[in-house]
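User: Structure tokens for both sequences below?

Assistant:
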Amino acid sequence: MKKSLIFATAAAALALSGCATGLNTRVSRFQQLSAPTGQTFVVQSKDPNLDGSLEFQHYADIVAQHMIQQGYQRASDPASADLVVDMHYMVDHGREKIVSDPDPWGPWGGGPWGGGFWGYRGWGWGWHDPFLFGPGYGYGDVHSYTVYTSELDLDIDRTADGKQVFQGRAQAHSNTDSLPKLVPQLVEAMFTGFPGNSGETVKITVQPDRR
């Protein structure tokens, strides 16, 4: 039993390392954007205290790159920009999760033909899958990990009339609380299929940057 627990712990650590399987992100978008024709934009923080920080500027540059790829232009004079892109990002303090691997031959086990998961919320499917980072490693073993929830909010307002023309939210669960790793991936998810169908929530997996 001791050997089994050691093996399970080591294998789980390997599965958790680096979000190797990509960041599973849930993206919701509402939009009334016209087709881009070179409109100018500026990226700013919803928290004015962050506007001058180097970290925020780094993330703002990433957003700007995506906006330019969409056909917009970064304003040379922020005061005369056609669009204002407001950005906010965060990651929580994490929650410890304890899961046990199912018996494949038990009454709830999937066996080689079944599927699903058995964890802290019981049997189920979906975004809150406790085996977020990979399958179990030894039937009947119990192990724990920390899950962090990260979020990126992106709003775009038209300066001509002050009307909001885009509102988006990207959320993800991960094994890391590192914003420098998470924010670029959340931005990537936000701009995948941008601007999207208004009122639609989609699941997007962003592969990690392997550079």
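Moving on to the next sequence.
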Amino acid sequence: MVRDLRAGRDAQAEAALALIAAAGADVILLMDVDWDHGGAGLSALRDRLRDLGAAYPHALALRPNSGTPSGHDLDGDGRAHGPRDALGYGWFTGDSGLALLSRYPLGEAKDHSATLWSDRSDAAGLLPEAAQDEIPLATTAQWRVPLRVGEAQLMLVTLAAGTPVFDGPEDRNGLRNRDELLQVTDLATDVPLPVVLGRANQDPARGEGHAEALRALLDHPALQDVAPSDGGNTATVRWERAGEMRVDYVLPARGLRVIDSGILRDDAAGPARLVWVDVALP
């Protein structure tokens, strides 16, 4: 049984890697990539992509908040070492982090992952009092990364908001998701040619979450939402219970001309789909 499950995971991973290679993106942000101190996992991933014809000489994977122990009982179950007690949901340090791969050189990243939720919003008051000055806003990670392509410099702003569900009537997860989206909106302000990419964990038309926060991001005056689709279907994931939803986004700067966009899917690669936008530099 264990061998069969592992074989299934390996097949899904290979299908996902094949999909990534087929996309041929110059820059891509990958979700749910486990982080480790030596970078062995990211190195193996890049090696496999290179074998598939998609070489990415530049990469970034900083330690995420997900899975990092907080030392506090955040979910009130009497323990302080469960996945919901971590700085961001996760079973182990580095669980489900981010990886940014690029064919162009990346500038020095600004890591905003340590920004405290309490510095951003009064909603952090829903945390245990002892934890309010220690829990970050970012569930996974929050980066701003310069990217120079020729004479143009873009500013990549990662999007990795936590799920707005799986809480109670206090709406702690929903409010944290809201505040993460508002932070991304701020980070895309007053920078040259911002490009926001990643997962908002919210659909513009259905599901839970604070729609006003997502709308503020999608309507940002420096960004454009071209709503990539697969034959008119804008859903980026198909979850067993929630069904199809649009939760992943690539929002290029208004100063970039959009040539084309779309969504690639392969059910063998898992429920998530690959969102792409092709742009022309100014």
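User: Anything stand out in the second?

Assistant: Residues 1-5 have pLDDT under 50 and may be disordered.
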